[in-house]
Specification:
The complex is a heterodimer of chains A (480) and B (341).
Chain A: H1 27-35, H2 40-65, H3 74-85, H4 95-106, H5 115-132, H6 137-157, H7 162-181, H8 186-202, H9 207-225, H10 228-257, H11 272-299, H12 303-318, H13 321-335, H14 344-370, H15 373-381, H16 386-416, H17 431-438, H18 447-475
Chain B: H1 2-17, H2 27-34, E1 37-41, E2 50-51, E3 57-58, H3 60-73, E4 79-83, H4 89-94, E5 100-106, H5 109-113, E6 117-119, E7 124-126, E8 128-133, E9 147-152, H6 156-167, E10 172-177, H7 180-188, E11 194-198, H8 199-207, E12 215-217, E13 225-232, H9 236-254, H10 262-268, H11 272-277, H12 294-302, H13 305-312
Parallel strand pairs in B: 1-4, 1-5, 9-10, 9-11
Antiparallel strand pairs in B: 2-3, 5-13, 6-13, 7-13, 8-11, 8-12
Helix pairs in contact in B: 3-9, 3-12, 9-12
Classes of the chains: A mainly alpha (480), B alpha/beta (341).
Chain lengths: 480, 341
Amino acid sequence: MSDANASPAYLRTEMLPSAAPPRRQEGLLGWLRENLFSGWLNSLLTVLSLVIIWSLIRHFWPWFAHSVWRANSLAECRQIITQTWGEGATGACFAVIRVRWHQYIFGFYPRAEYWRPILTLGLLFIALAPVLFSVNANIRRWVLAGGGLLCMVLLAVTASPDWTVVLVWALFAAALLLAEYAPMRLLMVTALYPVLAVWLLWGGSPWYPFMLLMGFAVGYGVSALVPRGVSALTGIAVTVLWWIFLAAPAASLATLILPLHLPVVQSSVFGGFLLSVVIGVSAIVLSLPLGILLALARQSNMFIIYSLAVVFIEFIRGVPLITLLFVALVLLKYFLPPQTHFDLILRVIIMVTLFAAAYMAEVIRGGLAALPKGQYEAADSLGLNYWQAQRLIILPQALKISIPGIVGTFIGVFKDTTLVGLINLYDPLKGISDVVRSEFTWKGIYWEPFIFTGAIFFVICFSMSRYSMYLERRLSREHR
Amino acid sequence: MKTTVFLGAAAVSALIAGAGFAAEGDTLAQVKARGELLCGVNPGLVGFASPDANGNWSGFDISFCKAVAAAVLGDASKVKYIPLTGQTRFTGLASGEVDLLARNSTWTFSRDTDLKLDFIGVNYYDGQGFMVPKSLGVSSAKELDGATICIQTGTTTELNLADYFKANNMTYQPVNIDSNSEGEQQYLAGACDAYTTDASGLAATRAAFANPGDHVILPEIISKEPLGPAVRHGDSNWADIARWTLYALIAAEEYGVTSANIEELAKSSQNPEVQRLLGTTDDLGKMIGLDKDWAKRAIAASGNYGEIFAATIGEQTPIGLARGLNAQWTQGGLMYAMPFR
């Protein structure tokens, strides 16, 4: 006030360096304080949790630590445990996994043909990579390399013939090269995959499934030739006609020209994870499009389509999966002509697909309902027709919203495949375990198979869940 | 739309695949046309039906399937084993999924009549028993008043248990279990004082324990469980084939015909019954639509009844079941083959 121009006695011209936080709030100590001991209640809960974890470990650790991996029977396991750890010691007998793991993976699939499911799995990676990882080339590379490595390991442990190893090497090298330079070409594998998988797994001639697939191509081709108004109907009609009248002769003709043939493998020998994955993947892949159609139908203004969709969805959701599986097993047989051979696995896939599709439809309907009405109106005001609007505006947004629900349904479907154990198929969880236990050498084994199958289920389901999180991150637009 | 197209395609392909089926009701003709016997078996039961690490089936019931296949098709290996769970076994037979059910099923009135099965005989006389830990200090089922008992739900054993305790004016606490393996776990973990199931199952279970000596099987057998193969109602000739194949196995033991000496006896046996059985003199096979050597092949497949019993569940095996009721009638058991003439 006295002298405006007088300089103050002391003026700091630069910022102080920030001081270190108090010792108690940094480093490990700080982290512990903040996360585990931030109040008396939290401290109590932390201590309680630690006690529980400790007692669990103390209880189960010896059992794991005493695991026996090399033995030929449960009695031998017990003997080894007693010898090594003294009288009364308990231990896991993972030797059963060592001896019988191939049945948990392949069921009763003939041993000499193990390379076929393995190759099918490898091709699954190649077929899925361009679809699931269409944007990120780096992840695609890793997924392909990982798939290749997994196949190599499986081929090695199943002692498959050398030429199959060379084949898989060549296949994955080609796939990796294609993925680098022309990833869209890989979609060819994706399109052909159903035929390849059916042929490899069941054997016989590839031409009949190929000609069934060709039906779509023929139908599409014809629908492109005829006038727009009737193109869709004509396409469907041509496809069905092709299936009924021309697919079989065309397949025989193709067999004459190029007789590809693999030894036939009956559905009845499928088991273990092979069965679960075949049913799970088919049902997952088929139920998504079916679910989308059902969800759209349920939103439709057309009375019959709407009613049919509602009845179908509510009926399927009101019936337990087990009931549908029993229908597939028993009831269908009464309706079909005697001695009709309608493959049990195919019946189960159809039922599981219908079941999953109904749930999928509701999940996607949730996504559709979450979109603001403005989006529909915007699509209309652009002059888009129904399918254009759905494809370009509505579904991309609705599906993105529904991703967690969709993947949740996928995981549920995959885990539900173990229910087929109740209808005479050898699921990995119970069916194969019962088989293993039915031999006297392994009677009495209980937890070890559960742990083994549980671990594999966890890996697969966890991968699906991580993928859904990746997809959500990749598709999140609003926060950019 | 898509659904119907898919189903249509599936149905069409099924029809194409299923073209040329034999007339319904004639199981023998169907089996011969197929060249394979569809045998419904337990998905896995120690001693009775069990696939090994290579998927080869063996066991007491499996041997009967093989004998029938050998009699009908001339080759004991031409059997397709269809695993059937407890819930699906009878519908599986009724719907034509299998030709023959050899799945340790108890012959009861309602199953024989209401479920439209034809039990063709008894290949194992079983009965329900109890197993208790030795430390419980119980020596008779009559002392189990108030005990907790592990019992498999949805089986005849559950009903038998209730009947038995009611008849003896006792009470019990059931611990419901879903499968044999779960029952073993519960029992070993001390969730129940006693475990009850068929005596053959108890013996196998006890033999697989770490310390079998710590457990005793009580002497009381509280029910009759005659286990036998079954076929569908309405095809008596097929039922005859299955029935007489079983009798052939039992008779073979009675007359001392084994898989080892069968060729020799077929040539040189002076016993007229053996001669008829093995087709040396009369042609019995023709009367059931088979050839002369049907019984010979059936016996040669896995041996006579006694050999099958000894190889799969008998005292030399780890399961160690005594013949008991299943001995020949000449030895004080119930196995009695009707005469071959």
